[in-house]
Amino acid sequence: MQIKVNGAPQEIETGLSVTGLLVRNKVEQPDMVSVQLNGEFVQRDRFAATAFQEGDEVDFLYFMGGGR
What we know:
Blueprint: E1 2-5, E2 8-11, H1 18-24, E3 33-37, E4 40-41, E5 57-62
Parallel strand pairs: 1-5
Antiparallel strand pairs: 1-2, 3-4, 3-5
């Protein structure tokens, strides 16, 4: 099935979870990433139970520290 990840089309297997997508995309620090699915944040404790549907749009949001 096809979804969009950060605006780019990506072919994934049916039943893939948010956790699986993070692994598949080699996200190095998944604990530092928030995930939006179709514009709604996915709660971290739901990553393993949230699977994708055809045409879903997923965004990985990386938070960075810095400043003074």
